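EI: anyone free to look at a 122-residue chain?
SC: sure, send it
EI:
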Amino acid sequence: MSKKIIVADDAPIIRLMLKDILTDAGYEVVKECENGRHAFESYKELRPDLVTMDIVMPEMDGIQALEQILKFDQNAKVVMVTAVDQREFLMKAIRLGATDYIVKPFENDRVISAVKKALGKE
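SC: here you go
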């Protein structure tokens, strides 16, 4: 059975790119979210195997959403998606319990390896 993934990013093009990469690799993208609040609500409802989470988003950023998701489910797998200049936020996310991270602009192979590592398949 394919693993279910939520893709959270405020940029529609990034969501589309991630969805294409993940779908091509055999994963099922069950939801696309444009902010952290939507990602958290969707996580509670859908209980996916993994979330890819942008750090900078409106309403609730990726760090806040990560905290909420981990409070709700301490075993949640969250891979942060970050721009190069967001190192400080990224370190905070890792300390809070993010499983891995991907830096934009990302390579397909890096996305898949982060997802596999997060899901314990590497």
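EI: The longest strand covers residues 28-33.
SC: 👍
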